[in-house]
């Protein structure tokens, strides 16, 4: 009986081992014959993994003009561990580098990884690539990887479009999409829309023989993945207007920003001095960036969105609207002015006195607006000076001053509209009043605004009480499938009836007998605007101007700032009206004025 039990156990044990062995055989058969993924891993030494970089999305203007496209270039990659018996002199000759340069590149690649590919020489031109490709089989461990670079056919809009550059180690650590040597948007809409523009990477697995020759795709491309091009951007920019504005601002410091009031789309966005965006592309980018960065005229500085200026007299209507809204003045209220003899704030010239709000805007009367401001700050209905100031400030915040407008461009500054606590710290609690901060009444003192904020302010007047956040991109995607930009209206805390008072006053700047911009009136287009001459501690005043047109159906709002150029009516106003004429009529008849503006050199002011 015992022998029978042992025999049964023996059969069970033998059967178990046979079953397990059979399972292992089946698994080995599956791994070696059916499932080729393990072959991929085992053959890493004879397979090459080539990242397929997607082309970035294209960028168009509002009329379908191409602003940015892609051009093919090539990176020469190296896997240090595979480099053997390479003709160093021949590589150096083909690439135009020294032996020392070769050794430096090899050390950098080896430090990154002896077994992984990294860029040996970046952005080789199509011509150089042709020569390298012919002899690549002689350079074991080297291969070429295609890429694309940005090109700018019109050479405009550098600050608007931005540029791309290599990712930093911190960016690689933060986002798994990027690897060393990848490119990313650094500024402008290249940065703001990086996720949309960059696309999706692909991968090709190639088989390579012992002579470094590509002998075909692995498994007929079964494990390859295709790259997906980035989404195209359709902007509200008018390329012709942008180009024209850049000509007008030649040899001047400042900026022009124009907006379509109906949509908030930015029509023109420039900072001057500017630069050709093609300078920051390709192998010359590093050298050119250093030169631009060290240039004393600061061409890389984006004045349109980062420049913070005293708004000067362009700010006066904001003060008027608040005074009307709070009821401290009406449209018939009159204040006197003694011209240059006025105190505590002088006027720039003698004119009719007393005058109402319409005439005060038309002639840019400083004493009138100081008295409006004093009436606001002294109104007993609103409690203490601190409380009155806060009411005044909150109205301004609703208009877009002192805060970011949430545009789709990076590095937006919010200007300066100090809270009342700041004055408590400067002067002491209860120790300041309207007289202490009187310079705010004429857009001076602590208040600062960006050109983007000023044109947005003109937009809300043009629209009679609302604005959309200013934005460059109107849609993303492709011609057949686009995602449209959408946002809510911003409604300021000012009633339409009071905005209309200011609107009429701005018309009188062009139409009135003593209007400060009367000289630049256009018979064919009704315009409304406001000149500004903003004092600054670093030289001559800045020439400012805001406007919109046509008044009955606004199509464009604009802000022009020319630094250290003097009166707003001298430079900023004529440039703005030329821009308006160009946009609405598509041509400019005032050729003499146009040439004078283009040829003027104000950089030394």
Task: Tag the structure with descriptive keywords.
alpha+beta, five-stranded antiparallel β-sheet, 605 residues, seven-stranded mixed β-sheet, 17 strands, Beta-lactamase, 21 helices, 36% helix, Penicillin-binding protein 2a (Domain 2)
3D architecture notes:
This protein is of the alpha+beta class and about 600 residues long. The chain has two domains: about 45-235, Alpha-Beta Complex (Penicillin-binding protein 2a (Domain 2)); about 240-290 and about 300-600, DD-peptidase/beta-lactamase superfamily (Beta-lactamase, 3-Layer(aba) Sandwich), CATH 3.40.710. It contains 21 helices and 17 strands. The chain has helices at about 1-35, 35-40, 90-95, 100-110, 125-135, 160, 170-175, 190, 195-200, 240-250, 285-295, 305, 315-325, 355-365, 365-375, 385-400, 420-425, 450-460, 495-510, 570-585, 590-600, and strands at about 45-50, 60, 65-80, 120-125, 140-150, 165, 185, 200-210, 215, 230-235, 255-260, 265-270, 475, 480-485, 530-535, 540-550, 555-560. Strands 2, 3, 4, 5, 10, 13 and 14 form a seven-stranded mixed sheet that branches. Strands 12-11-17-16-15 form a five-stranded antiparallel sheet. Strands 1-8-9 form a three-stranded antiparallel sheet, with no helix packed on it. Strand 15 and strand 16 form a beta hairpin. The radius of gyration is 33 Å and the shape is elongated. The termini are far apart. Mean pLDDT is about 90; it is low at about 40-45.
Relative helix content: 25-40%
Using only CA atoms, what is the Rg? Answer: 33 Å
Identify low-pLDDT runs. Answer: 40-45
CATH superfamily of the largest domain: DD-peptidase/beta-lactamase superfamily
Identify the CATH class of the largest domain. Alpha Beta
| Structural domain tally | 2
């Amino acid at each position: 009986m015992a022998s029978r039990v042992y025999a049964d156990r023996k059969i069970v044990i033998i059967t178990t081992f046979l079953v397990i062995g059979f399972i292992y055989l089946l698994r080995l058969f599956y791994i070696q014959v059916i499932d080729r993924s393990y072959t991929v891993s085992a053959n890493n030494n004879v397979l090459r993994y080539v990242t397929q970089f997607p082309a970035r999305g294209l960028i168009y203007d509002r009329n379908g003009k191409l602003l940015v496209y892609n051009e093919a270039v090539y990176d020469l990659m190296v896997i240090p561990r595979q480099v053997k018996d390479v003709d160093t002199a021949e590589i150096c000759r083909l690439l135009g580098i020294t032996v020392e340069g070769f050794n430096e590149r090899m050390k950098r690649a080896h430090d990154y990884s002896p077994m992984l590919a990294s860029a040996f020489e970046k952005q080789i031109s199509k011509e150089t690539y042709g020569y390298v490709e012919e002899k690549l089989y002689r350079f074991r461990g080297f291969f070429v990887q295609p890429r694309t670079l940005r090109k700018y056919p019109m050479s405009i809009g550098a600050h608007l479009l931005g540029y791309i550059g290599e990712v930093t180690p911190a960016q690689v650590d933060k986002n798994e999409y990027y690897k060393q040597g990848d490119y990313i948007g650094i500024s402008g809409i290249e940065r703001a829309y990086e996720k949309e523009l960059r696309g999706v990477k692909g991968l090709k697995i190639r088989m390579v023989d012992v002579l470094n020759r590509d002998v075909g795709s692995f498994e007929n491309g079964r494990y390859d993945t295709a790259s997906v091009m980035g989404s195209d951007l359709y902007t509200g920019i008018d390329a012709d207007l942008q180009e024209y504005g850049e000509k007008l601002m030649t040899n001047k410091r400042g900026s022009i920003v124009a907006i379509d009031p109906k949509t908030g789309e930015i029509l023109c966005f420039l900072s001057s001095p500017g630069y050709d965006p093609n300078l920051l592309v390709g192998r010359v980018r590093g050298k050119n960036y250093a030169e631009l960065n060290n240039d004393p005229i600061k061409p890389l500085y984006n004045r349109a969105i980062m420049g913070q200026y005293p708004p000067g007299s362009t700010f006066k209507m904001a003060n008027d609207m608040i005074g009307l809204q709070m009821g401290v003045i009406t449209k018939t209220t009159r204040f006197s002015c003694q011209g240059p003899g006025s105190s505590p704030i002088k006027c720039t010239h003698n004119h009719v006195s007393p005058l109402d709000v319409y005439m005060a805007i038309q002639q840019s009367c400083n004493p009138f607006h100081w008295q409006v401001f004093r009436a606001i700050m002294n109104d007993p209905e609103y409690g203490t000076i601190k409380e009155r100031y806060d009411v005044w400030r909150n109205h301004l915040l609703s208009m877009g001053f002192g805060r970011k407008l949430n545009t789709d461009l990076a590095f937006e500054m919010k200007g300066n509209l100090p809270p009342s606590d700041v004055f408590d710290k400067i002067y002491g609690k209860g120790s300041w009043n309207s007289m202490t901060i009187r310079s705010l009444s004429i857009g001076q003192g602590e208040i600062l605004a960006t050109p983007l904020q000023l044109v947005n302010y003109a937009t809300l007047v043009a629209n009679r009480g609302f604005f959309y956040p200013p934005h460059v991109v109107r849609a993303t995607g492709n011609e057949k499938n686009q995602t449209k930009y959408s946002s809510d209206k911003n409604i300021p805390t000012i009633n339409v009836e009071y905005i209309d008072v200011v609107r009429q006053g701005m018309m009188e700047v062009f139409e009135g007998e003593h209007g400060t911009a009367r000289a630049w009136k256009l018979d064919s287009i009704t315009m409304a605007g406001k000149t500004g001459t903003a004092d600054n501690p670093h030289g001559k005043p800045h020439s400012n101007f805001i406007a919109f047109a046509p008044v009955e159906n606004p199509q464009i709002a604009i802000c022009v700032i020319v630094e250290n150029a003097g009166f707003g009516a001298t430079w900023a106003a004529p440039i703005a009206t030329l821009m308006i004429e160009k946009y609405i009529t598509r041509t400019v008849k005032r050729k003499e004025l146009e040439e004078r503006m283009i040829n003027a050199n104000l950089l030394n002011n």
